[in-house]
Design a protein that fits this description.
mainly beta, Immunoglobulin-like, 2 domains, 5-stranded mixed sheet, 4-stranded antiparallel sheet, globular
């Protein structure tokens, strides 16, 4: 998703145990869509469906869409043949019955990601047990953009949001010499048994280096 202020948000998808619905509020969004980021055949080994070749679908709004939400729906599915992911736009204020509501947009189908996205991208995410029973560990790898040229000593830091239902327990940012990217690892402590809306990105000084990784962590 791309906001009017040119913030790029990346939300990894999943096959949840129960229906999962997320809302992302925007004022005149510049783009959103469903992207196939992993293009390695070895991660699928499927000669029939060839998931690594599936195109991206990117929506580019035209004109003023005003305030509304990108609604993401992740539907539990026991089979890969079911299309269980959908994302669409919802205006904040619905038109009155019988009144027209016009939206103009372009849809791009492409194997590449939007060319306008120049920041580093979240290429991997891993979840694990934390140092304590009520802690959750999250590890995110960022690659590409300007971060590849940064030296190991660069003062790269993370900006992390965990919401009001959790506390940030620990965080580290280190250079990844294998990929040339940077790895963010942090832990959260839950205060209540509710889903957590997490956000994180990397910056160097006042310069934002990466897209914003966001994720809904189930209880």
């Amino acid at each position: 998703m791309q906001s009017a202020a040119n913030e790029w948000l990346w939300r990894p998808l999943g096959n949840p145990e129960k229906l999962r619905v997320s809302y992302f509020e925007f004022e005149n969004p510049r783009g959103f869509g469903l992207l196939q980021r992993d293009r390695a055949f070895q991660n699928y080994e499927d000669l029939e469906t060839r998931h690594e070749l599936r195109p991206n679908a990117w929506i580019i709004p035209r004109g003023q869409w005003r305030r509304g939400f990108v609604k993401l729906v992740e539907i539990p599915s026991p089979k890969e043949t079911n299309d269980n992911i959908v994302a669409y736009w919802m205006p904040r204020s619905a038109p009155a019955p019988g009144q027209p509501f016009d939206l103009a947009y372009q849809i791009r189908f492409d194997s590449r990601e939007p060319a306008e996205a120049s920041g580093a991208r979240a290429t991997a995410m891993r979840l694990g047990n934390g140092d304590k029973d009520d802690w959750q560990r999250i590890v995110i790898d960022f690659e590409g953009g300007k971060i590849k040229a940064l030296p190991d000593s660069a003062p790269v830091k993370a900006v992390i949001g965990v919401g009001q239902e959790a506390q940030l327990a620990q965080q580290t940012v280190i250079h990844n010499p294998v990929t040339g990217g940077w790895r963010l690892a942090f832990q959260v402590k839950r205060t209540r048994g509710k889903p957590l809306e997490l956000r994180a990105y990397l910056q160097n000084g006042n310069e934002i280096l990466t897209e914003t990784w966001c994720y809904q962590l189930e209880p």
